[in-house]
Design brief:
The chain has 201 residues and is an alpha+beta fold. Helix content is 63%, strand content 19%. The chain is globular and about 45 Å long.
């Protein structure tokens, strides 16, 4: 009887670990499918599609943490109000970047791998293979669990980090305004407005 109970407990433990490992994958799939569904609906205006992407970014990306890293040394010199404006501008910039990439979407299929745990950095890695007619590309989502929920902290495409790329890109612009985040906010706002008009038309 004891052996039977021990076996049942062991099986339960294994199943719990499988469910736990699948949890971030199921969460990510759900968020990706929300966006893809909007692009599969030809009757949906471009503005609505973009708003769905923006909402996903705001809800699921570690926006403030990413924005702070990307701003580099300019972050520490800025006031609280300037930082708040910058985070808002940065999240919209990120959403516009993804919306721009999604314009080439044409019902490609994708598959998510099982979650892998990077114990050294305490993050979850999920590979997403996107298939086209001729080949496929792998995107690695870097996910962190915090306060009982998941947040995306980076995307890796062809071994290139989105966050590191953005930091390099922003550094050039920040340098042109002597790392003044307030002045940079205006540059980013103007860029966002220009990109937004292209996305929705």
């Amino acid at each position: 009887m004891k052996k039977k109970l021990l076996l049942i407990f062991f099986i339960f433990l294994l199943n719990s670990n499988v469910l736990s490992a699948n949890e971030p994958v199921n969460w990510l799939k759900n968020e990706i499918d929300k966006i893809l569904f909007s692009y599969q609906n030809n009757d949906l205006p471009n503005e609505n599609r973009f708003l769905m992407i923006e909402q996903t970014i705001n809800n699921n990306f570690a926006g403030t943490g990413i924005a702070k890293f990307v701003a580099g040394e300019a972050w520490s010199e800025a006031s609280k109000d300037v930082k708040k404006k910058y985070v808002v501008n940065f999240k919209r910039h990120l959403a516009l970047n993804i919306a721009s990439m999604m314009q080439s979407y044409s019902n490609q299929k994708y598959a998510l791998s099982e979650a892998k745990i990077d114990t050294k950095n305490n993050i979850i890695l999920i590979d997403m293979e996107i298939f086209s007619e001729t080949d496929s590309v792998v995107v690695t989502w870097r996910v962190k669990e915090s306060k009982g929920r998941f947040f995306i902290i980076d995307l890796i495409v062809a071994d290139i980090s989105l966050v590191v790329t953005k930091r390099s890109e922003f550094n050039s612009l920040l340098k042109s305004v002597d790392y003044n985040l307030d002045k940079f906010n205006q540059i980013l706002l103007d860029q966002n407005n220009e990109s937004y008009s292209k996305i929705i038309n």
